[in-house]
Specification:
The protein has 6 helices and 10 strands. With 285 residues, the chain is an alpha+beta fold. The structure holds calcium ion (CA) (2 copies).
Amino acid sequence: MQNQKERNSSLMNKLLIAFFVLILSATSCPGGWGVTCINFRRGDTNGDGQVDLSDGIATLTFLFTGGERPGCADAADADDSGNIDLSDGIYTFQYLFIGGAPPPPPGPNECGEDPMPFDDLGCESVGPCGPQELTRDHSDFEQFQLHYSPGFGFCPQLNSVFEASITAQLDGDYQLEMSVLRPGQPGEKCIEFFLGEIECAVVEVLPARDLTNGEIAQMLALFSDLKIFLDRDAICDCIAIDPCRIGNFNWDGNNFSDFICGNRRLARDQAPAIRDFLDSLHDAP
Ligand SMILES: [Ca+2]
Ligand SMILES: [Ca+2]
């Protein structure tokens, strides 16, 4: 009787453990490297969308010669052992060249999630498994506008562009209207946003002016080759991201944010490039 009780108790413990494992696998995104519940191709260390010689080399150069850290550690873990080491490079070469077994699920050909996500690995960048990057040309715009809206807070950047508008004129000129944020002085009315470390910030409207020919050329080069996404980043399927502030970039009603979880958004380097360009226009030529 005692043995039967112990067996029942042991069975119950196993069922409870299985239950909690199921709950965890359904709700959590474990992983010290990054999140693990996003799609990847196992073996695609360099994240270019296919598994080939360069991936084995990328794994070995990362391990032994200070090469670039893989954006998706789960992809670099070619043998799914739970860590990245020499055997992963060897596993990839054996698969490619001497008929070795293919990398375990999700495998080297199709994007998929890690069926065994309980390791210390994870994914930060999924390469071509993520939304498709597109190119847009908005250089023939009539009006471009930038404004920021609060995210988690507002977190303004002092001495940087606050709002901007560039309007094409009939004579081929472009008129710039811009405001910047500067530190407030005692007695001035501070803007009413979360300012973090900043005690007081004031919006300063700069005098409107026409862009110079050099500035126009720089702007049109930037706006004719915009890298955008029409889907949010895959990482947003796993974790909540609440930005400090959201930049809204608008060409004649075509609005793209700099928010990684926004559906219509600029590629990662694009918003800073536009912001840097606008910041370069602070001072009249
Ligand atoms: Ca690759
Ligand atoms: Ca491994």
